[in-house]
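re: the backbone from monday

yeah here it is again, tokenized this time
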């Protein structure tokens, strides 16, 4: 429970190859010890050269050693001095002919061992472990990694009690065997003690054939969910069908049989363009007629309102005249009554 397996060892034969490629029956232990000694010599002499991986192949006469490094100039040295010294020291220790090859690592941010060594060097320079971890994570994600996990363990920040802290961004599917996960480890010998740095990098999904497992790196394939895989399969089939149709059309046209179809298609295109041209003015005329009708209805309504207002004013004038007439009649009647009384 809780124990971690080395991701590279778990995936050997699935999407990772062996770093030592040779076959032996009786001298297996001796040759294995020689490989370990060669790796130790190279790592001791090129401690800060950014060596990520050392691969070996043995023949009956010589040993071929491939060194993957992010600083090839430091490995070669001035006029090849350092590489010649390394070759001589390995030949003296093993007694075999050594062929050294240098392979440049173009993106060190995507190699787990180099990421771990970078953090360890920053810890030696008294940089905060959290800052170093987060900086390395952002750089590797910008470089193209799909997920990264970094763990530091030891007396972090000079604490009395050792502890472990880890950060993760993106996906790191350790249980998915087709996932291309790179693992690296480095140690920082600080004044407080050793601090161990581990790095896991997820670089997509890879599937190797049986024949190419130990020869060439496989082509990376992005990890997809089942639904997205089905969609991609449908898209690929549609694209293939479209390509076949184009090829058939080309062959028909080249043989001279496709002129009638092409003419019909061109005629249809012209008809569609003419229809579009005719449809646009018709729709514009309809819109203009609707606008005119709306304006006419508004004007008629305003005229009705004005007519109603004039009628009301005329009726008021007539009532006022009637009232004036009745007032004069009343005055005349009262004058007659007063004359009768006087008489």
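seq for it, each position gets an aa:
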């Amino acid at each position: 429970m809780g124990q971690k397996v080395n991701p590279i060892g778990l995936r050997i034969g699935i999407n990772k190859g062996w770093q030592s490629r040779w076959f032996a029956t009786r001298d297996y232990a001796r040759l294995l010890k020689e490989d370990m000694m060669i790796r130790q010599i190279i790592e001791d002499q090129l401690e800060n050269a950014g060596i990520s991986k050392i691969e070996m192949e043995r023949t009956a006469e010589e040993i071929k050693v491939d060194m993957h490094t992010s600083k090839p100039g430091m490995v070669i040295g001035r006029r090849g001095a350092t590489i010649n010294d390394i070759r001589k020291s390995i030949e003296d220790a093993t007694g075999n002919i050594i062929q050294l090859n240098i392979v440049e690592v173009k993106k060190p941010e995507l190699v787990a061992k180099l990421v771990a060594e970078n953090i360890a060097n920053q810890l030696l320079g008294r940089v905060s472990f959290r800052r170093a971890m987060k900086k390395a994570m952002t750089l590797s994600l910008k470089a193209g990694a799909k997920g990264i996990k970094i763990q530091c363990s030891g007396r972090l920040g000079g604490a009395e009690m050792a502890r472990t802290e880890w950060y993760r961004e993106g996906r790191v599917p350790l249980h998915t065997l087709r996932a291309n996960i790179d693992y690296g480890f480095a140690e920082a010998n600080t004044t407080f003690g050793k601090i161990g740095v581990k790095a896991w990098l997820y670089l997509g999904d890879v599937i190797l054939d049986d024949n190419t497992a130990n020869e060439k790196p496989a082509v990376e394939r992005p990890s997809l969910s089942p639904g997205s895989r089905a969609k991609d399969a449908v898209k690929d089939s549609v694209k293939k069908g479209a390509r076949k149709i184009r090829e058939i059309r080309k062959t028909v046209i080249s043989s001279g049989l496709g002129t009638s179809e092409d003419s019909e298609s061109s005629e249809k295109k012209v008809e569609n363009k003419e229809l579009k041209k005719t449809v646009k003015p018709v729709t514009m005329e309809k819109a203009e007629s609707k606008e005119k009708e709306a304006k006419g209805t508004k004007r008629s309504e305003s005229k009705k309102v004005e007519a109603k207002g004039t009628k009301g004013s005329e009726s008021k004038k007539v009532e006022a005249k009637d009232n004036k007439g009745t007032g004069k009649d009343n005055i005349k009647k009262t004058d007659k009554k007063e004359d009768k009384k006087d008489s």
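The mean pLDDT is 79. Strands lie at 20-21, 51-58, 62-69, 97-104, 147-154, 163-170, 179-190, 193-206, 220-221.
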